[in-house]
């Protein structure tokens, strides 16, 4: 009967089916479902990282501990690379050319002796010591510097020399005016009232 009424009304197209939901039939009611539990309130708390290691608060560090912390951070910035353990490859020229007669063809005579290093300038000895680390040349340069009354400070990694007689000398340290070589700025500088502790003195006898 509904089909005849639709045909008689002149509607040629298909009539879409009517779909009603429970909300359309009962507007005042909501769809049944499981009860939703109330969500607890979330509060963010920011705790400083130091409370994990120091529950009572950070304690001040001593000068020695601060120095060790600075050295450790510097070491992390210069981590060794896998290539550092490889042997240095000797360079071989593809097209060698003969040297001119006035150039040195062989190393100087007795260039690996302490007498040869004592004839070098002080700045040259410092260059060899800091840039040829772990070689015999570094050992000979250190030996030559010690013969010139330079003393190596193991804490500051610098060479010191007395500018005058120390004003205070004890069994543990001496205090006075010193000349030291600053390898970062590459030059000799003067330090007044410096305390040289003997525990940082490199006093091994270089044979």
From TrEMBL:
Cellular component GO terms held in the UniProt record: CCR4-NOT core complex; cytosol; nucleus; P-body
Disordered: region residues: 22-42
Protein name: CCR4-NOT transcription complex subunit 3
GO biological process: regulation of DNA-templated transcription; regulation of stem cell population maintenance; regulation of translation; regulatory ncRNA-mediated gene silencing
PANTHER family referenced in this protein's UniProt entry, alphabetically: CCR4 NOT-RELATED
Main location: cytoplasm
Source species taxonomy: Eukaryota, Metazoa, Chordata, Craniata, Vertebrata
InterPro entries in the cross-refs: CCR4-NOT_su2/3/5_C_sf, Not2/3/5, NOT2/3/5_C
Domain NOT2/NOT3/NOT5 C-terminal as annotated: residue spans: 78-201
Pfam families: NOT2_3_5_C
Subcellular localization(s) per the UniProt record: Cytoplasm, P-body; Nucleus
Homology family: Belongs to the CNOT2/3/5 family.
SUBUNIT field: Component of the CCR4-NOT complex; distinct complexes seem to exist that differ in the participation of probably mutually exclusive catalytic subunits. In the complex interacts directly with CNOT2. Interacts with TIP120B and NANOS2. Interacts with EBF1. Interacts in an RNA-independent manner with BICC1 (via KH domains).
Domain of life of the source: Eukaryota
Keyword field: Cytoplasm, Developmental protein, Nucleus, Phosphoprotein, Repressor, RNA-mediated gene silencing, Transcription, Transcription regulation, Translation regulation
Native source organism of the sequence: Ameiurus melas
Keyword Cytoplasm annotated: yes
